[in-house]
Write a structure and sequence with these properties.
The chain is an alpha+beta fold. It has helices spanning 9-12, 15-23, 29-39, 64-81, 90-98, 121-135, 182-195, 204-222, 228-249, 255-262; strands spanning 2-5, 43-44, 50-51, 103-109, 112-118, 148-149, 156-158, 161-167, 174-180, 270-271, 274-275. A hairpin with a 2-residue loop joins strand 7 and strand 8. The longest helix is centred in the C-terminal third of the chain and has 22 residues, at 228-249. The protein is globular. This is Reverse transcriptase domain-containing protein. Pfam families: GIIM, RVT_1.
């Protein structure tokens, strides 16, 4: 696995190369002039000083994510057109493996990307060098220190996920598993702790209204993997934090009174018709690789923007 890291991606994009790629899709000069004006608008610093933007696209701007993806699409096209890339059939890829040639897959989200290489470490180093050469005309550089090559058996973190190959329990077969990384789990635990350190004079319903969106969003993101054990752990952790907050709120009450008041005599906290979101109840399923099965809505060739 080639873990790609681009140095200052948004600040380094070459305007000339970027506009060249935009012109391949958009023929309306008014739209092109607006995009160019956006790139050249400059940045207002904290001191009120205006700084020219000769390269890059302002991070946080409304067009910046789109323009960055247009610039990085050179890497997508390169991998797609490479021998052993996603356009090769299963039979062609099997033939390349028999010939000790590498096959490739690209996984990219904005400027974070992985290149999966079925081959040797030398072949992974070669595709890393080629990727750097492809990105260079766009003004983008790979970080030498952070662009690492990792074997899937060792595992790596990507977009909050831990990707690692393990032996399936009870068999001799090995599979790649995706589950929440320790860093992602620690981050959500810190959020839960912070919300459960609030003023104990608040009603429990206020705390639950703040906790539930955090837990619901986190589990919705990580439900597409092997996350059941993590969800159960997070559910138990949140329960301890909430009841710890209740114990501090009612220092003279015992467990029986707290349960009767906040759990209807049971164990799961609720208040004012608001119930703590139960992470352990979230069902998980593996995300299936769809690759190029998703059709592109854009026809080949230049698209002319419609006049407004």
């Amino acid at each position: 696995m080639v873990e790609g890291d681009i140095e200052a991606c948004f600040d380094s994009i070459d305007h000339t190369a970027l506009m060249g790629r935009v012109r391949r899709r958009v023929g309306d000069r008014r739209v092109l002039d607006l995009v160019k004006a956006f790139l050249k608008a400059g940045i207002l610093s904290e001191g009120g000083q205006s700084r020219d933007t000769d390269t890059g696209t302002p991070q946080g701007g409304i067009l910046s994510p789109l323009l960055a993806n247009i610039a990085l699409s050179v890497l997508d096209k390169f991998i797609a057109a490479s021998p052993g890339g996603p356009n090769f059939t299963q039979g062609q890829r099997a033939r390349r493996r028999r010939q000790n040639l590498a096959n490739y897959r690209l996984f990219r989200y904005a400027d974070d990307f992985l290149i999966a290489v079925t081959g040797t470490r030398e072949q992974a180093e070669d595709i890393r060098t080629q990727a750097a050469e492809v990105l260079a005309p766009m003004g983008l550089r790979l970080s030498v220190e952070k662009t690492a090559i990792t074997h899937i058996d060792e595992g790596l973190d990507f977009l909050g996920w831990r990707l690692q190959r393990h032996r399936k329990r009870g068999t001799q077969k090995h599979y790649v598993y995706l589950y929440p990384s320790k860093k992602a789990l620690q981050a959500v635990k810190e959020k839960v702790k912070t919300l459960c350190r609030q003023d104990t004079n608040l009603p429990l319903a206020v705390v639950l209204h703040q906790l539930n969106p955090v837990l619901r969003g986190w589990t919705a993101y990580f439900r597409h993997g092997v996350s059941s054990a993590t969800f159960q752990y997070l559910s138990a952790f949140t329960w301890r934090q909430v009841f710890g907050w209740l114990r501090r709120k009612h220092r003279r009450s015992n467990w029986k009174n707290l349960r009767r008041r906040y759990s209807a005599g049971r164990w799961w906290p609720a208040d004012d018709e608001v119930t703590l979101f139960k992470c352990a109840k979230v069902r998980t399923h593996r995300y299936l690789y769809r690759g190029n099965k998703i059709p592109s809505p854009w026809p080949n060739g230049t698209t002319t923007a419609a006049a407004v």
